[in-house]
Write a structure and sequence with these properties.
18 helices, single chain, flat, Bact_transf, 3 domains, alpha/beta
Length: about 500
C-alpha cells in the first residue's frame, strides 16, 4: 500500500472509500512516516532555549558572583522547574499542533513565577554561602528581568518554528461522527491549515452514502466515507494516520470494531467539541482547534502504565549499564583488536509510531556497503564473521549497547524488536497486523524472543506475539519477560 492521500480537490462532498489501494512513486508505508514531532524535536529545542537564557542574566552579576557553579545550578533548576510544570510535554494531538499547543503568552505566568522563585532562592543561598557576594535588590531585579526576557525570546523563536512546521506539515487524521458534524469539522480544518490537522476520511456509523445538507457545510476537499473496518485500515495505512477526531454532541460514536482497529494501529482518540468535565480553566486558551475544545480519550491507567514502564526502563537500563560496564569494555576491546577501528555499529530502525532512530550494537562484521546493511536479512552464517563476532552474536553480547538506546528513550527494555525501514515496508505489505507492532516502543527483548522467535524465524508468528503482548501489557509481564530473557542467556541460541 502507498501513503498517497485519499482526498481529492473539488466541492466538499463525500463518497464511499475506494477499495483498491492507490499507487504512486512516493509510496511509503505508515510505519516509515515518522511523526512531525520526531522530525522536529521541539522539546529538546525548548530545553536548549532555557539553558541559553541563563547566560544573558549573568551580565547583571559581578565577576565574583558570576561563577560557573552558580550558572550551572540556575540552568539545572530552571529546566527541572519547567519540566515539573509540563512545559516540555509533547504537543496535543500527538504531534506539533499550531492551533492546539499552548502559545508563548500562555506560558508567561508559569515561566515568570518559577524564575522569580529560582532567583530568590539563588540569592538567599549565595548570601548564606558568601555574604560579601550577596545580590542587592537592584542586581537581583536586573538578573531576573534579563533571564525572563531571554527565556521568553528564545522560547518564542521555538514556538514560531513549531507553528510553521505544523502549518507546512499537517498530521493526517480521521474524523468520526454523523454526516453534518463530521463534514463541518473536516471542512473547517481544511480551511485553517494553521491548526496542523489534515482530515483524510470520515468514519460514519451508517453503511451508506452521507447526504449533504444544502448550505450547511463549508466547501472543502471531497473525502472518502469509511464505513467498514477494511476501509478504516486502508486509510490508516495509506495516509499514516495517527489521530482520530470524534465529534462530540452527535450520535456518531465509533463502532467498537472501528475504535479497536484505530487503537490497534496506534491512533489516539480525541473528543472534539466538548470540554473535559471538572477541568474548566485547566487548559490554556490557546489550546483549541479553531475554537473547538478537545481532549484525549485515554483511560487514566494508560498514562500511569506508560510512566511506570518508562521508570522501569530508566532504572533497569541504568543499573544494567553500571553492572555490565566491565563486560562492555572487554567486548569493545575484543572488537577493536579483531576488526580494527569502529567498535560500534549504527543502523536506522523503526520505533514507536514509525519514528526512526539509530540503534547501537557492537560491530560483528563490516558490510560491503550501506545497501547491504539496510537490506540483507541475516549474516548469521556469513563467512566474514570472525570468532569474536560469532561469539558476540551467539551470546547476544553484541546487543548490550542498546541499553543506551533504552536510557535515551529510543527503546524500552521489553517490546517488539525494531526492524529496518526496508523490511518494515515489505512485512507491512505481507502481514496486515505488522504495522500495529509500532503502537509501543521497540524493545531490547520481547514476548516473541522469549518464545524462541529470533533470527530467521516466522515473521507472522513474531507479529502475532508482539501484538498479543501490546494488547495484554502489564508491568509485571515486563518483569516476567526480563526474567525469562535472563534465563535464556544461560543457554544462548544466537540471533
Amino acid at each position: 500500500m502507498t501513503t498517497e492521500s485519499t482526498s481529492t480537490s473539488g466541492p466538499h462532498t463525500t463518497r464511499p472509500a475506494a477499495l483498491a489501494p492507490q499507487r504512486g512513486s512516493a509510496a511509503r508505508t505508515a510505519a516509515q512516516r515518522p511523526p512531525t514531532a520526531a522530525r522536529a524535536p521541539f522539546a529538546a529545542a525548548l530545553v536548549a532555549a532555557d539553558c541559553a537564557a541563563v547566560l544573558p542574566a549573568a551580565a547583571a552579576l559581578t565577576a565574583g558572583q558570576r561563577s560557573a557553579e552558580l550558572l550551572l545550578q540556575l540552568t539545572v533548576a530552571a529546566v527541572a522547574l519547567h519540566a515539573r510544570a509540563g512545559l516540555y510535554r509533547p504537543a496535543a494531538l500527538g504531534a506539533v499542533r499550531a492551533g492546539a499547543y499552548p502559545t508563548l503568552l500562555d506560558e508567561v505566568p508559569a515561566i515568570a513565577a518559577r524564575l522569580a522563585v529560582l532567583w530568590c532562592a539563588a540569592a538567599a543561598l549565595l548570601a548564606a554561602r558568601s555574604p560579601d557576594l550577596a545580590l542587592g535588590p537592584g542586581a537581583l531585579a536586573a538578573a531576573y528581568a534579563l533571564h525572563l526576557a531571554s527565556a521568553l525570546a528564545f522560547r518564542g523563536a521555538v514556538h514560531r518554528r513549531r507553528r510553521r512546521v505544523a502549518r507546512d506539515q499537517p498530521r493526517a487524521a480521521l474524523v468520526i461522527g454523523t454526516a453534518p458534524a463530521a463534514q463541518r469539522l473536516a471542512a473547517l480544518l481544511h480551511q485553517h491549515p494553521e491548526c496542523g490537522v489534515r482530515p483524510v476520511g470520515l468514519v460514519t456509523p451508517a453503511e451508506r452514502d452521507i447526504p449533504q445538507p444544502a448550505g450547511a457545510v463549508p466547501s472543502g476537499p471531497a473525502l472518502p466515507v469509511l464505513t467498514s473496518p477494511e476501509d478504516v485500515q486502508r486509510a490508516v495505512i495509506q495516509n499514516g494516520v495517527r489521530d482520530a477526531l470524534l465529534v462530540a454532541g452527535e450520535d456518531g460514536a465509533p463502532r467498537p470494531d472501528h475504535a479497536a482497529l484505530l487503537r490497534r494501529h496506534g491512533c489516539a482518540m480525541w473528543l472534539v467539541g466538548a470540554p473535559a468535565r471538572g477541568e474548566a480553566g485547566s487548559a490554556p486558551m490557546g489550546r483549541h482547534l479553531w475554537g473547538h475544545e478537545f481532549r484525549l480519550l485515554e483511560p487514566p491507567e494508560a498514562r500511569a502504565g506508560r510512566l511506570s514502564k518508562r521508570a522501569l526502563d530508566i532504572v533497569g537500563a541504568g543499573l544494567l549499564l553500571l553492572a555490565a560496564a566491565p563486560v562492555l569494555l572487554l567486548c569493545a576491546a575484543a572488537v577493536r583488536l579483531s576488526d580494527g577501528p569502529g567498535v560500534l555499529f549504527r543502523q536506522e530502525r523503526v520505533g514507536e509510531n514509525g519514528r526512526l532512530f539509530t540503534l547501537l550494537k557492537f560491530r560483528t562484521l563490516r558490510p560491503e556497503d550501506e545497501r547491504e546493511a539496510a537490506t540483507r536479512w541475516s549474516v548469521a552464517h556469513d563467512e566474514r564473521l570472525g570468532a569474536v563476532g560469532s561469539f558476540l552474536r551467539r551470546t547476544s553480547l553484541d546487543e548490550l549497547p542498546q541499553l543506551w538506546n533504552v536510557l535515551r528513550g529510543d527503546m524500552s527494555l521489553v517490546g517488539p524488536r525494531p526492524e529496518r525501514p526496508y523490511f518494515v515496508e515489505r512485512f507491512s505489505l505481507l502481514h496486515a497486523d505488522y504495522a500495529a507492532r509500532h503502537r509501543m516502543p521497540a524493545g531490547l527483548t520481547g514476548l516473541a524472543q522469549v518464545h524462541g522467535l529470533r533470527g530467521d524465524t516466522s515473521i507472522e508468528d513474531r507479529c502475532r506475539f508482539d501484538n498479543h503482548y501490546i494488547d495484554h501489557w502489564s508491568l509485571w509481564q515486563d518483569v516476567r519477560i526480563l526474567l525469562r530473557t535472563a534465563a535464556t542467556l544461560i543457554r544462548p541460541a544466537g540471533s
